Structure formats: C-alpha cells, structure tokens
Amino acid sequence: MDGQFDRNRMMQLQPEIPGERVPLDAAPRGTNQSGMRDYNERLVLSLVRQHGALAKSDIARMTGLSAQTVSVIMRALEQDGLLRRGEPVRGKIGQPSIPMSLAADGAYFLGLKIGRRSADLVLVDFLGQVIGTHRRIYRYPTPDAVVSFAAEALPGLMAMLAPDSRRRIGGLGVAMPFQLWNWVQALGAPQSEMDDWRERDIQAELAAVTDLPVYVQNDATSACGAELVFGTGERPKDFLYFYFGTFIGGGLVLNGQLFLGRTGNAAGVGPLPVPGPDGKMRRLLDSASIAVLATMMEAAGESSDHLWERPDHWHVSERLLRQWVDLAAEGLASAILSASTLLELEAVLIDGWMPPSVRALVTERTREALMRLDLSGVTPPQVCEGTVGAQARSLGAAAIPLSQRYLIDQNAAARGA
Questions:
Q1: Are residues 102 and 45 in contact, defined by beta-carbon separation less than 8 angstroms?
Q2: pLDDT, tens only, 280-339
Q3: Which residue, 243, 238, 188, is CA-closest to 343?
Q4: Is the dihedral of CA 320, 326, 329, 334 positive or negative?
Q5: 8 Å CB contact between 13 and 41
Q6: Tell me, what's the pLDDT at 95?
Q7: What is the pLDDT confidence band of residue 240, given thresholds at 50, 70 and 90?
Q8: How far apart are CA 114 and CA 19, in angstroms?
Q9: What confidence score (pLDDT) does residue 30 get?
Q10: Mapped to the 3 state alphabet, what secondary structure does the chain carry?
Q11: Which of 101, 162, 206, 379 is the most buried (most CB within 10 A)?
C-alpha cells in the first residue's frame, strides 16, 4: 500500500464535505423553495470549492435546482465578487457553457494559531492562498502576549490589501489548545501566569483588537478542518487525523463532517494510553510529540531550539531522528488500532510541524508498525500523509470564519435534501 487513498474505493464513499472532490451525483440537494437563498448560495460555493470551475448546467444537475434558480444564484454571487466567470467552452450543440470559479479576491480571512511555543497570524484569500503571515516565538503562551502580538501584527497584514479589499475580511479564526493552564509542568511555565487563561475571555479581547467576528476552536481540530477546506487529493468520509506540534493532537471526521464533540475537544488524542518501549502504558504525547524529540536532542547534546523556528529544515542526527520516528510510529499504531476497534475508519492522516521528508518517514513507519499488530477482527485503515503541511493550524483557523460564512453545514445539507 503506497499511502495514497485508493481512488476506486474513494468514489464509492460519496463524501459531502467542503474541500474534497466527490462524484457529481453525490452532492447535497438544493431547494427551489423561497426563503432558502442563503443555503443555496452556500451550497453553490461549496460545490465550486470541491470540484473547481463549474457551469450553471453542472450546478443544476448536481443540486436539483431549476436552471432559473441557478442563474439567479450565480449571477448574485458574481455580482458580490465571490465567483468569476471563465472562458466559454464551446460544444457541438447549443450555447457555449461558461465555467464559474471562486474569485481569490472575493473574501479574505485571518487565522491565529496560539501554540505552546509560538503564535502565528496569517491572512489568506478566498482560495486559502497565504497573503502574509507573522510569527512570534515564546517560552510559553500568556493572554497578554497573544493579544499584544495580534494587535502589533494586524496592521502589517492589513496593509498588504487595498482599502476596498480590507472590507472583505470575513473574520478571525483562532486555533488554540484548550485548558492551557493544565500544561504548566510540560511547558515549564509559572502556574500563576497560565491561570490567566481560566479567567480571560480571549475571544472578546481579540474581537476588541481586530473589530472582527472571532471564532475559537481547538488547534488540532482546526488543522483537521484545514484538510477539509484547503486540502488536496481524495479523502474518505471517515478518518482520524494526527497533527504533530509541541504535543500531538488530533481531529476526527465522521460521515464527511468535522466532529467537534460536546466541548469541542473530540479526538484529543494526546492522553490516549499506548504501550511504551518498556511495555508500560504511557500517554501518546509522551511518545509522539516534537517535545519528545527536543528532549532526546538536548540529552544527546544537540540543540533543539531550531525545531520551533522553521518546520522545513531540521538539523537532527540520523540516529536520533530514526529513534524518535520509530517511537512515534509505535505509539501511533497502537492509537490507530484502539480507534479502529470503536470506529470503522477508512483512513488515518498524519501531518505536523515537520519537514515533508520526516512526515513521509513517520507515515511509512506507522503503516509498518500497524501491520505488525494483531489486527484480528479489525479492518485496518489506510495510513496516509496530510496534504496541508506545517501551517495546518493557522490555515485551519482561517478556515473557521470562511466555513461559517460561505460553506454549508452538513447537518443542514441533510435537512435540505
């Protein structure tokens, strides 16, 4: 198995999530009833995001909407600057069709990643292309440091847009670990400063600084959301997602929908018990996290400071890197097996703040480790690389306001079918 999700299997799944390409007859249905314009517009934008440029006839066939209704919707979206018409495609019979695609400058979004070692503020366009980004590294995060960073970085990003375009910024998404005050020991941070996260309303404070709608989500869940909205290639309807940051986190997609859970912290895989090298149970984050690699490097006399600065160039001795990869892969394999006994997962995606070559190695070793386990009674999922990369958390943060304003909610889609 080469790690790429099988296309033939994929075409049988009929996924329905923003960001993935699906069979034309698998799209959610629109409604010709009056008063449903917002839903239908979101549906059209979601389908164009999934499939690329589409003609009015394609939209009508995929949604069940009348040709007249589709014409009205797409004309309105074009006038709003969200869709752009392409060159006419001439066939042998009838009028040429005009494909409509998303307009990159139709809307913009800000994404703030609050990490345990760094913060990133990114500005993206309607296609998810990065316009600009600012980054700050710290020993540990505090509300004051994060709000100050956002206030200082925002003007520079805004200046990258023309005045008219600035009015098209649709909101700020925030991706952050939940309950940061519980990570004092792991971060080596003062309890008194981390306790500020209990009392402060970071959403309200950032809204006051930016004068924008602000949406907050778990950081690893946001990274998983980036796969749904901005990811490339085929994805299954049901998959578990792992993101390597300072500590490992996860996201879960069920029936093509990002599953948040009761408190928004579903698939928080870090505390999941897995066997360690000595056979004793430990938390997954104690085997599969970049913090584990940093500790190993420092113990061996290798500086780990650069790990937090750039994800594309790691300077790690081959022996230590292989040792860490194998440790992480064994932990991931056990976690995947446990998850697979409860959920019929089609695939597992692995991504993180790491060079693509390291991500590929972790994925390969995890696949091998999973095959060495006792899989009796379990259909193992395919183990694949994520497609967004190191910036998945900040891009996933930016995807939150985009989804809130311009994409369909899959539960709503089911009701509107």
A1: yes
A2: 999 999 999 999 999 999 999 999 999 988 899 899 999 999 999 999 999 999 999 999
A3: 238
A4: negative
A5: no
A6: 66
A7: very high
A8: 24
A9: 55
A10: CCCCCCHHHHHCCCCCCCCCCCCHHHCCCCCCCCCCHHHHHHHHHHHHHHHCCECHHHHHHHHCCCHHHHHHHHHHHHHCCCEEECCCECCCCCCCECCEEECHHHCEEEEEEECCCEEEEEEEECCCCEEEEEEEECCCCCHHHHHHHHHHHHHHHHCCCCHHHHCCEEEEEEEECCCHHHHHHHHCCCHHHHCHHHHCCHHHHHHHHHCCCEEEEEHHHHHHHHHHHHCCCCCCCCEEEEEECCCEEEEEEECCEECCCCCCCCCCCCCCEEECCCCCEEEHHHCCCHHHHHHHHHHCCCCCHHHHCCCCCCCCCHHHHHHHHHHHHHHHHHHHHHHHHHCCCCEEEEEECCCHHHHHHHHHHHHHHHHHCCCCCCCCCEEEECCCCCCHHHHHHHHHHHHHHHCCCHHHHHHHC
A11: 206
Q: What is the mean pLDDT of the chain?
A: 88
Burial 315-337 (b: 16+ CB within 10 A, else e): ebeeeebebbbbbbbbbbbbbbb
Strand partners for 97: 89
Tell me what pLDDT residue 409 has: 65
Going from the N-terminus, what domains does the chain have, and what CATH number goes with each? Answer: 7-102 (1.10.10.10), 107-221+395-405 (3.30.420.40), 234-386 (3.30.420.40)
Q: Of all residues in the chain, what percent carry a pLDDT higher than 90?
A: 74
- The C-alpha atoms of residue 386 and residue 299 are separated, in whole angstroms, by 30
Q: Which two tokens stand for residue 135?
A: 């980054």
Q: Which two tokens stand for residue 147?
A: 């709000």
Backbone φ/ψ region at 295: left (φ over 0), alpha (ψ -120 to 50), beta: alpha
Amino acid at residue number 102? L
Buried b (16+ CB within 10 A) or exposed e, 19-30: bbbbeeeebbeb
Closest CA to 116 of 93, 135, 142, 91: 142
Please, are residues 250 and 224 in contact by the beta-carbon 8 Å criterion?
Answer: yes
- Tens digit of each residue's pLDDT (9 = 90 or more) over 375-414: 999 999 999 999 999 999 999 999 999 999 999 865 443 3
